[in-house]
TrEMBL record:
<dbReference type="InterPro" id="IPR001611">
    <property type="entry name" value="Leu-rich_rpt"/>
</dbReference>
<dbReference type="InterPro" id="IPR032675">
    <property type="entry name" value="LRR_dom_sf"/>
</dbReference>
<protein>
    <submittedName>
        <fullName>Leucine-rich repeat-containing protein C10orf11-like</fullName>
    </submittedName>
</protein>
<dbReference type="InterPro" id="IPR043313">
    <property type="entry name" value="LRMDA"/>
</dbReference>
<feature type="region of interest" description="Disordered">
    <location>
        <begin position="176"/>
        <end position="195"/>
    </location>
</feature>
<dbReference type="Pfam" id="PF14580">
    <property type="entry name" value="LRR_9"/>
</dbReference>
Length: 225
């Protein structure tokens, strides 16, 4: 991988670039020269909240923003080619509003990972969350982003998308969230018999995602995207 100095003097196309653990709070301006060449960009483990400048990466297909300061106020520029986006361990709390932003900016997304955010109530990372909460979260994301094939570390199923439709449409009509009846037919969900709360809480619980690399990309192959 080219260094910052090497990149500045590099004349050949640069398709993959990583700028991690540098405490950057914005997209590095020195990348501007090669912005249209870069297809895979890793900016993880920085302090980025403002994505100004990202709009120059017109051919970007994969973006890693794990372990940054991305929150509900972050604005995303439109990038039509983007298919893979990892946002693990940031500060995202309002799931549905955030998903609307993603869909507007990246209409071709096939893989998203939101582990380690308040909006992602993972029972694996936080014992206070239940399998049902995580299942409902997956269903909502699957419905809201119809192009999605992978969420976090699992394939998105047609059943999840159908349940997400019932949840979101019912919520719009009544202001309430229905139980995910029929969820026992979905192999991604295991019923929690001790769970009495049947509403989508959408993750206000705090926990920490641990890991220097994206948690989801280890589980998928390039030809799956």
């Amino acid at each position: 991988m080219a260094s910052k100095t090497e990149l500045a003097n590099f004349s050949d196309p640069v398709k993959n670039y990583s700028y991690t653990d540098n405490e950057a709070d914005t997209v590095p301006t020195f990348l501007e020269r090669h912005a249209t060449e870069i297809e895979h960009l890793n900016l993880s483990h920085n302090k980025i909240r403002n994505l100004s400048g990202l709009e120059m990466f017109k051919n970007l297909e994969e973006l890693n923003l794990d372990n940054n300061q991305i929150d509900d106020s972050t604005e995303f520029p439109t990038l039509l080619p983007l298919k893979t986006l990892t946002l693990n361990n940031n500060h995202i709390s309002e799931l549905e509003e955030f998903l609307e932003k993603l869909l507007a900016a990246f209409p071709r997304l096939t893989y998203v990972s939101l582990l380690g955010n308040e909006a992602c109530p993972s029972d694996v990372l936080n014992p206070k969350c239940t399998k049902e909460l995580y299942h409902q979260y997956r269903c909502i994301v699957a419905y809201k982003i119809p192009t999605l094939k992978f969420l976090d570390f699992k394939n998105v199923t047609d059943i999840e998308r159908a349940v997400g439709y019932r949840i979101c449409v019912h919520q719009v009509k009544t202001g309430d969230t229905p139980a995910t009846e029929g969820h026992d037919t979905d192999p991604t969900y295991a019923s929690d018999s001790n769970s009495s709360n049947r509403k989508v809480l959408l993750g206000r619980l705090r926990y920490t995602y641990v890991g220097k690399n994206s948690e989801g990309n280890r589980f998928i192959r390039n030809n799956d995207l």
